[in-house]
Write a structure and sequence with these properties.
Distance between the termini: 43 Å
Largest sheet: 5 strands, mixed
CATH class of one domain: Alpha Beta
Number of helices: 21
Shape: elongated
Helix content: 40-55%
CATH superfamily of one domain: Ribonuclease H-like superfamily/Ribonuclease H
Number of strands: 12
Radius of gyration: 35 Å
Strand content: 15-25%
């Protein structure tokens, strides 16, 4: 037996339908409150004496593909309480029905809020029009600002890190509750004073997970001296790998000697390599001047003043990071070199034919890349001289991967380097040992590792860890890390780009925090 649709199913609870006008483009439903009284907003006493009536027009959820407008017959009541300062007041409704001064019902307001939260301003407004609940982009953004930052419980374990408004120009700070896995605050910059000002009011915090920068470490130490600081494990592993890469860069002269590339024959160079080589010869004169001044006892500041070079350039020269001839990069041909060598040894010397075969197997590079490789190969067969040296990054990768994953040529290159540069092998073993120590949480091995690392090519990394030893030790032994904060930064970047130029701090914070609740 079919059931009749009750009027109460069309409108929010607590309202009674009086009339339905279904003629126009917008369905209008006249409603009134089911209660004979209302509570005074000043004294909270029930009042039943009606003073007058007025109409409120409220947007509501669409019905049957049509927009709905509620015409609410609201009342004004007289407050009879003797000591109440308010004599006449407008009827109040439950907040689940409609809020004071609202132009839409609470259930439609919730829909508008979630549309803005998920899509932002303009996309949310376009989608709302399709849902027959039209709102403007500014209304969506106001709804997010009004409801997007709910109260949160006081955190005891937080993660703090910086994020970029605009890379290399302007940065902010994000703070996350690691126990509840949600962001709780955005700060407008990454200055230690700003972070300290927020942390001072959160004395219940017991653990602060952070990156290895000194700014947040200083802020946490000053604001929360009792809290344990935990360095981020991912940054520790990345710093260790970068320290090994720096060791490779400092050893490029020995590496070239090891693989027989100390003599450069300009006839074997491409035009780009010849330009790099000429620039290298010019740089060598400046580098020798800088090294000679450093040996005489001059400091970096004085060398910068005398030579006119930047401080970063002088520091790199003194650290041995400007000795490479060809700052080569990995290209699209790197993964195909073993196959090309085999085809070349088999007698296939036509570069165009090689390129066509590679295209059939999924190669995405151009014909020019293959023809340049073939030209260099032919020149190398006619004369003795320079073999192309892999970049420092490539060498570091080859030395760190398993031997079974290397080709025959790569294995020979690594073996030659290991035999001629034992200090680099020691640095690689130390780096591997640090990674294993982090994965296995072997904090008891840290002191022995530091003693070994101080005598190697990664001694600068070891010295940096010594300055932050407590946080590093906690990172190895503790279960807390800043990985959750890094994940929230990824979400933050997505939200920021969705909002284009409207990504002000309060709106950005509201969207990010509300999305995590």
């Amino acid at each position: 037996m079919p059931r009749r649709l009750r009027n109460g199913a069309l409108v929010p609870a607590g309202l009674v339908v009086e009339q339905v006008d279904n003629a126009g483009a917008v369905m209008e439903i006249a409603v009134r409150s089911a209660k004979p009284y209302s509570r005074c907003p000043s004294c909270d006493v029930k009042a039943a004496a009606v003073h007058s009536h007025y109409s409120r027009r409220l947007g509501d959820l669409p019905l049957a593909g049509r927009s709905v407008r509620l015409v609410l017959n609201a009342r004004r009541f007289r407050c009879r309480t003797a000591n109440c300062a308010r004599r006449i007041f407008a009827e109040r409704f439950d907040t689940e029905v409609v809020e004071p001064w609202a132009r839409r019902t609470s259930r439609l307001g919730l829909l508008v809020f979630h549309l803005g939260l998920a899509l932002g301003g303009r996309p949310g407004a376009r989608f709302a029009n399709r849902l027959m609940a039209p709102v403007s982009k500014d209304t969506l953004l106001r709804s997010i600002r009004r409801r997007g930052r709910p109260e949160h419980a006081a955190p005891t374990v937080v993660g703090i890190d910086d994020w970029a408004w605009r890379r290399n120009q302007r940065y902010g700070t994000i703070i996350c509750d690691l126990e509840r896995r949600r962001p709780i605050r955005l700060l407008p910059d990454r200055e230690p004073a700003t972070a300290r000002g927020w942390l001072v009011g959160q004395q219940q915090i017991e653990v602060v997970a952070r990156d290895r920068g000194g700014g947040y470490a200083l802020a946490a130490a000053q604001a929360l001296p009792h809290a344990q600081q935990v360095a981020d494990r991912w940054h520790l592993m990345e710093n260790a790998s970068h320290a090994f890469l720096d060791a490779v860069r400092c050893s490029m002269r020995e590496i070239r000697t090891a693989i027989g590339t100390t003599i450069v024959n300009p006839d074997l160079l491409t035009v780009a390599e010849r330009l790099q080589y000429e620039g290298y010869l010019r740089r060598q004169e400046n580098n020798e001047i800088i090294l000679k001044q450093a040996k005489s006892g001059l400091g970096i500041k004085e060398i910068v003043r005398r030579t006119g070079r930047s401080r970063g350039y002088v520091r790199a020269v003194l650290r041995g990071q400007r000795t490479d001839i060809f700052r080569t990069r990995e290209n699209s041909l790197e993964a195909w070199l073993p196959w090309l060598d085999a085809e070349w040894a088999g007698g296939q010397r036509n570069a165009a034919q090689l390129w066509r075969q590679m295209r059939q197997q999924g190669f995405g590079g151009s014909l020019r890349v293959v023809t340049e490789w073939a030209t260099r190969k032919r020149r190398a067969e006619k004369a003795e001289g320079l073999h192309r040296v892999p970049s420092a990054r490539t060498i570091a990768r080859l030395m760190m991967v398993e031997r079974e994953a290397l080709s025959r040529a790569e294995t020979i290159t690594v073996a030659a380097i290991e035999e001629s540069v034992p200090e680099l092998v020691e640095a690689r073993d130390i780096t591997d040992a640090f990674h294993v120590m982090l994965r296995k949480k072997a904090a008891s091995s840290l002191d022995a590792w530091l003693e070994r690392a101080r005598q190697s090519l990664v001694n600068s990394f070891a010295r940096g860890m010594t300055k932050d030893i407590d946080a590093v030790r906690a990172a190895i032994a503790s279960n807390w890390s800043n990985g959750q904060t890094e994940g929230q930064i990824t979400k933050l970047k997505l939200v920021k780009r969705q909002m284009y130029g409207r990504a002000k701090l309060d709106l950005l914070e509201a969207r990010l925090i509300a999305a995590a609740t």
